[in-house]
Structures
1.
Amino acid sequence: MARRVYSEPGDRIVSTAPVAVNRYRGWTRLNHWITAASLILLALSGFALFHPSLYWLTGLFGGGQTTRWIHPFIGIVLVASFVLLFLQLVKYNIMRREDLVWARRFRDVVSGHEDRLPELGKYNLGQKFIFWGMFWLILVLIVTGIMVWEQYFGGLVTIPTRRVAILVHSISAVLILLVFIIHVFAAIWTRGTLSAMTTGNVSGGWAWRHHRKWLRELAGRQKVDPAE
Ligand code: HEM
């Protein structure tokens, strides 16, 4: 019996370097990590001021007085840094029709059936939710923070208003920490994502799997050299 043949004589497996796709420039990564560091420092100094049982955290900032003094200034750094990040990324975080389909098929997202999901641009709805969640919460935090920043804005609002402001400030701080935890968890859970913010690159496979429209656009813009 004749042997079955599936391949041509010229077919061969060629191993080339995997395709890497650049997702963030160095400047954007630096901007992101300054934002992240300031939020972590704000959380630590904020918790230190929040409840006496957490007062020991002031030790990280050189005592109670310096913690109280430095907390709002770190807030200013966060706002300035987030504004720069926001301006760079806002146009890729606008809601699109495919986001609704993605949300409806969220079960497929969690179970890893991405083949059943629509092709997406640079961000999915989850990432957009993080982006806008952080935007609104940072806005509320800075506005209420200024209202209770007695050193420079002491007479700005009445004492009853200041009481409401501090309550809203604390609730928003808890909410932004939840958003932050979801963000870090999603970045770790979606394998291959962290390198986007460390080296700046993701693999071609990651881009194809999670953000195919974005990859198609990049591929259309340039000649892809897999061996590069
Ligand atoms: C240490 C904790 C953090 C880690 C490990 C982390 C990790 C990452 C990673 C891997 C990405 C790239 C995701 C992608 O391109 O698909 C990213 C994007 C981003 N991160 Fe973080 N991040 C952290 C903290 C923060 C904080 C505190 C903020 C804001 C207050 C933040 C805001 C953003 C924004 C706005 C993006 C762009 C995504 C978008 O625009 O939708 N990150 N982060």
2.
Amino acid sequence: MTKPALDTRDDIRFFFGNEERRLRDIDPQMTVLNWLRLNERKTGTKEGCAEGDCGACTVILGEPDGMGSMRYRTVNACIQFMPTLDGKQLLTVEHLKPDDGSLHPVQQAMVETHGSQCGFCTPGFVMSLYQLWLDGGEDDRGAINDALAGNLCRCTGYGPIIEAARKAGGISATDPVEQKRRSDIATRLTAMIEGAGMLALEMPVGRYFAPRSSDELAALLVAHPDATVLAGGTDVGLWVTKMLKRIDPIIYIGDVADLKSVREKGGALTIGAGVTYSDAHAALGMIAGDVGELVRRIGSRQIRNAGTVGGNIANGSPIGDTPPALIALGARIVLRVGDIRREVALEDFFITYGKQDRAKGEFVESIIVPKPAAGVQFKAYKISKRFDQDITAVLAAFAIRIDGGKVVEFRAAFGGMAGTPMRAKKCEAALIGKDWNEASLSAAQLALSRDFAPMSDMRASKEYRMLVAQNLLTKLFIETTAPEIATRLVGREAAYV
Ligand SMILES: Cc1cc2nc3c(=O)[nH]c(=O)nc-3n(C[C@H](O)[C@H](O)[C@H](O)COP(=O)(O)OP(=O)(O)OC[C@H]3O[C@@H](n4cnc5c(N)ncnc54)[C@H](O)[C@@H]3O)c2cc1C
Ligand code: FES
Ligand code: FES
């Protein structure tokens, strides 16, 4: 097996705005937010929740796009660790001000629409608006809501900020990361990293390795079987900021080039474990509109720009959003330890609450998602208290094929109903081979109550969970038998936004 790269380096290389930085002796667990505020005294970026929820800490990360320019994305600085900046460009609200001292159009629009009152949320909103502006602006209310869903404001009622988003979209201005500068930064970033060896920080406070290939990753995990794999950090970041854990060593997979692709082959998608939700979204939306819509509702744009589908599976959460949908689609995952790979059905990966079929040193390499066969209808429903940026109470995913009024294929998977994401096999058996009518629907609903004994927690009571799960079967029935009836808050076309 390929050995870990012998060449390593111990400095984090990135651009802070347009300034090249090389940092040594940084605690690998220091968050970008703490570095900005405590080390750099750049206090424009705020701390609200320190858990990725409020958006006050929103910054933009730029990465070479492989085509000679840069790609920019918002993330929550409060849950990103400093070494993950390696090879990237960090932009904060301080970088928006043009050299002539005027305001950037998104800032000017916020002033003109009274989009700022107490001001605490403002820098975060400005960064999300700036991202929208970089992407060409938006007039559509749904798209603006989507871009701002990860930013909370308790003062303005959001109306003026949405107005600012519309207003700024129409204004042209000199871009602080104008095209010419972008290609220069992309070239310099690539030169800083290429051939420079793997980032390996070995400090008394903790170790951090950032392999650049899956062979290096596999070898490192064999050498450090107790290491914590870090992908987007949207779970792991909170272990540090909320649980005050020390993690040692950390092996970061965000720089593993061959885990960052989505490939289509033989009627299935193969999604590398390092692929973020944002990068998997379009492809998953093409597999089934409802999977795309589900992904669009995961966390916020900042969370989707960092979090991965692989992390959503590997964390084993009973309320992760993608596993039930992927189980209903018949997804499989590739697990790898050293040079040995095995493929398991996703539903078999989840053994019981907190326990997955993953050995020490083994990692999720990819996820294989088959396209639904001809005639199969796929539906997924997320139930949460808020539409955006909320944790699921119950999630149902169904793949159903009806032929001549009979159910000939049916896979049903749920989240939030048991200690793991799970298929509802009694419910499936109650329907397969039966006429698809109200009597078989009732039988399937009754069978569901034998599949699961859900628990009560702060999100939902066990009675609510069961009732809503049964009602989602009714929704499936309506959508497959009377599609003219409106059943959705947001149209299916949103899946592709
Ligand atoms: C504000 C906020 C909102 C959220 N909203 C949602 C939501 O709506 N729906 C939802 O489902 N989740 C949500 N989450 C949870 C989280 O975003 C997801 O679970 C996400 O998919 C985790 O992926 P990650 O790449 O960030 O994983 P990380 O945090 O990097 O890792 C998560 C776990 O998986 C392990 N791991 C990661 N990759 C691998 C791998 N390749 N092999 C082996 N182990 C691995 C890590 O060691 C860790 O144990 C939210 C989180 C936050 C902070
Ligand atoms: S401080 Fe709230 S999202 Fe980062
Ligand atoms: S202006 Fe006060 S929180 Fe938004």
3.
Amino acid sequence: MNTPVISFAGATRTFPARRGPGVTAVDGVDLDIAEGGITGVIGWSGAGKSTLVRMINALELPTAGTVTVSGRVTSALSERGLRELRGEVGMIFQQFALLNSRTVAGNVGYPLKVAGWSREARRERVAELLEFVGLSELAGRYPARLSGGQKQRVGIARALATSPRILLADEATSALDPETTREVLALLRRVNRELGTTVVVITHEMEVVAAICDRVVVMEQGRVIEHGPVYDVFSAPEHPATRRFVHGVLQDVPSGETLDRLRARHPGRLVTVAIGGPDTDAADAQAAISRVPAAHGVRSTIVHGGIRELAQRPVGSLTLELDGDPDAVQACVDELSRHTRVTEPTAAEQTHVEPSR
Ligand SMILES: Nc1ncnc2c1ncn2[C@@H]1O[C@H](COP(=O)(O)OP(=O)(O)O)[C@@H](O)[C@H]1O
Ligand SMILES: [Mg+2]
């Protein structure tokens, strides 16, 4: 990895409670974020995502450990160092946090005014930013007359005003409908690709991560429980919490009533075949599904599942009903499991079918 632009080392943030031991929102996090990518921080409410990310722009300081951003240790900064850091880290929010008494242009130019830019320099920069986010026409409008998506684009333009090296987005699309969410996510990706800004996106939605992130950090109870490239983490989640996020989205193995219905309709042997994942090749698995059953004289019917793209690569699972002589079906399952992961759907956990040697 390139030199990380953000580095957490044993970073901990405990909030004092009126009585008792206090709440440890972030608990001993060691994490490096390389410059130039889009990292998603995912977790359920209360996992510590906002606190972790607020430590990047020193809105929160660690109560133990350190956070180093762009070469600066946040807890050792002077007032001036803090101002410099905040100039390098922009942030957008779920509720947009726009100034209602100022126009779109006034909102976008506000951080520049605070930073002491001249009126003329501000005018030029604001025009450039509004063009980038596609809001040039609405420069004179007030926030009350903007849609949610437009408000968030104003938020993004404002956050980019001082050309930050890092952009933080805390649930920036959670208040938006799916269509607007896609637009805002596409804009965040442009910010990353065209301006080279390192983007950190907080979300509780796996689709947001799947849509734009290169890497993902999964948090639970203040800890980072899993992190890595999006494809690797989501195609083979190791931790139960991560599995809960990808469940459904990857059209996983049928269970419960779905499985009961499948069994009623399909009396043959049901097996679920993984397509893609860190240890299997999607194309190989797809070819095997098409070829292997027929080679064993087994009739194969796809009865459940799906394939989608994750980080631009296929991943998913297909459940097949295999019909034929039981020995031939077993030989077919054995051969399939030499190409990819094959499981037998059961009411509870899946039973792994080991390839026979
Ligand atoms: N300023 C605060 N004072 C006290 N407790 C806080 C404060 N901020 C966050 N917490 C607590 O820390 C935990 C993590 O919160 P947060 O970082 O907001 O999680 P998330 O963004 O994942 O929902 C929660 O239990 C929350 O109640
Ligand atoms: Mg939060």
